[in-house]
Specification:
By secondary structure, this protein is mostly helical. The protein contains four helices and no strands. It folds into two domains: 76 residues, Fumarate reductase/succinate dehydrogenase, transmembrane subunit (3 helical TM bundles of succinate and fumarate reductases); 41 residues, no CATH class. This is Fumarate reductase subunit C.
Length: 151
């Protein structure tokens, strides 16, 4: 190998912070990736609710306002706040957008073969239909569990 030092400087063109606004594909990509902020908010909100639920005194003979005060604050004052309700609705819309774009991407990202003896792929509509069916099934299970717990 040569021991000659190169004085050549590579050209690094300047990249603006708004590079993604020039192409609609990148705009959709960045909006989709931005939905992670909503997912983070919902996750932190649920973690706070679980933490406050664990702070409740569940060993008491009967549930009183003093026993369940932390969790009731979370339900009534935090989750019941109109601003938090609005943020949750925006997060729901962002999550649905994320799910729809992910389901459309899935057949291109994961190659599912019909069987191990040939290279025919499962049609895109089958993969996407299975994903939508799974999401609908999970939604039904969660709604049934939520409404079954109502008095």
């Amino acid at each position: 190998m040569s021991e000659t030092k190169s004085f050549r400087k590579p050209y690094n063109p300047p990249i603006k912070a708004t590079w993604w606004t020039k192409n609609p594909f990148y705009i959709r990509y960045m909006v989709r990736e931005g939905t992670a902020v909503c997912a983070l908010f919902v996750a932190l909100e649920l973690i706070l609710g679980i933490f406050l639920f664990l702070l409740c005194d569940l060993s008491a003979a009967e549930a009183t306002a003093e026993n369940t005060a932390p969790y009731m604050w979370w339900v009534q004052s935090f989750v019941g706040n109109p601003i938090v309700i609005l943020i949750n609705l925006v997060c729901l819309a962002a999550t649905l957008f994320h799910a729809v774009t992910w389901f459309a991407l899935m057949p291109k990202a994961v190659r599912v073969f019909m069987n191990k003896n040939n290279t025919d792929l499962v049609p895109d509509y089958v993969t996407m239909g299975a994903l939508y069916a799974g999401m609908a099934g999970a939604t039904v299970v969660i709604l049934v569990a939520a409404f079954a717990s109502l008095p």
